[in-house]
Fold this sequence. Notes:
Keywords: Glycosidase, Hydrolase. It comes from Micromonospora lutea. The chain has two helices and 42 strands. The protein is mainly β. The protein is globular, with a radius of gyration of 23 Å. The longest helix has 7 residues, at 3-9. The strands form nine sheets. Strands 4, 25, 28, 30, 31, 32, 33, 34 and 41 form a nine-stranded antiparallel beta sheet that branches. Strands 24, 26, 27, 29, 35, 36, 37, 38 and 42 form a nine-stranded antiparallel beta sheet that branches. Strands 15, 16, 17, 18 and 19 form a five-stranded antiparallel beta sheet that branches.
Amino acid sequence: MSTDIADVAIGRSIRNPVLSGFHPDPSILRVDDDYYLATSTFEWYPGVRVHHSRDLVHWRELGGIITERRLLDLRGCGDSNGIWAPDLTYHDGLFHLVYSDVASFASGYWDAQNFLTTAPTITGPWSDPVRLHSHGFDAALFHDDDGTSWLLAMSADWRPGRDRFGGIEIQQYDPARRQLVGRPRIIFTGTEAGLTEGPHIYRHDGWYWLVTAEGGTSWEHQVTVARSRDLFGPYEVDPAGPLLTSVGRPDLTLQKAGHGSLVRTQRGEWYLAHLVARPYSPLGNCVLGRETALQKVDWSPGEWPSVPGRVPADEIPAPDLPAHPWPDEPATDHFDAAQLGAGWSTLRRPATDDWIDLRSRPSHLRVYGGQSPVGKQTPSLVARPVGAVRCSLETVVEFDPGDHRHLAGIAGYYNTENWHHLYLTRADDGRSVLELLSCDGGHRTAYPQLTVDTEGRLRVGLRVTFDGPVLRFAYDLGDGWQQLPVELDATILSDEHAARIIDGEPAAWGFTGALLGLWVQDLGGDGRYADFDHATYLEH
Length: 540
């Protein structure tokens, strides 16, 4: 056993980020000896990804909670819209999940519908969703010691000239009637950092502790703590400043630190789960998106909670808990199961059998083609987050395109406007060919000089590799791997590149990080499909 593995095995330290790649806005929860992290998923199914741990060191992916349109319909969902900042709590023998479905953010408006669903276990079954309110996003439940439950949320203000982040709102939730009751009230308007959102309340040491995210979710992000003797305030802000932030420290590995939630271990230790990002250069593009990290919190009786140095650390002490590693996930998915594995996501529609078929051909994933890259109702993209600076996805595909409207291959993907795609299609002269197409900010670039003749090849190997700021494609026609002689810009598949501000208004936001995917398009609606024999994801 290597030294690194031994250190983790005995639980000495936690290495950040604990969830790498696209895993933002963590909500952490302990139920008895089990810890759960729920994270945002935006336009991707399954909604609200959940990871499970018993020692805060080792985490395993459980998949997502929202697997059906009954719980969420993302047809037509815009880029980086959809599910924002889920909140996971446990009360009266039920898991409670609150999530915001954000439909727009243009011109100062947020159309954010908040929902609640419950389940007896983390794996369900989850109840039909209850519509709460649309007052703002980042909704969360607080269950008080007296048995009452309260819904918190950022209170949005659409009016020109007003602060769009109007404060933290609270309103009582009646679980028997499954609805909000009483009037909402603002309990906190934030600090000078502004953009106050992501609220959570904790009852501890005779105080109500309000934890919020401030400064926006980029470089100015921070975790703010305020306290009050009364649930409704007034709340006093920690005079020492933010609990955690990376502001002013471009030297730190972990940037954008903010949006935190707290958990107490069985032995009384406190930890903060929060989002971070790792730019490829100082304050540069973050291809990996926003990730989840943990920090040790010192919280003595009568004192404010504190994180050492108030900055995110790459490595922290693990809690005094027995080590509990999980079996390693295999690098290769042979598609032997009846459902997609927990690591896969699908774009804007759940993995239903009308387009995802794991039964017709054993040990193959059959994907029926969907819309074009700009289609937001029925795309056919199966993907997983880029989890390391250097990683790859490799597959073998069988595809019989009828014409130029049929495409199947492998991709590095960010959103409808930013992607790289290597695909099989049919040329005008009838040959099956391999082509490359890129899109940067909605502007497409073709590489006709790189077209590869694949006529007569029933099986084609495809590989996409992220190598820092460079993305490369390779193919195998049965006689060994050949790399396409072009280096593509991987940094266009980043939060920063996707975001656009026009005249002070957000025209586009970037919240997801990059993904590697298997992409099939049937632009003619002809019922074409591709069979993928396997998919291997490796971090180098």
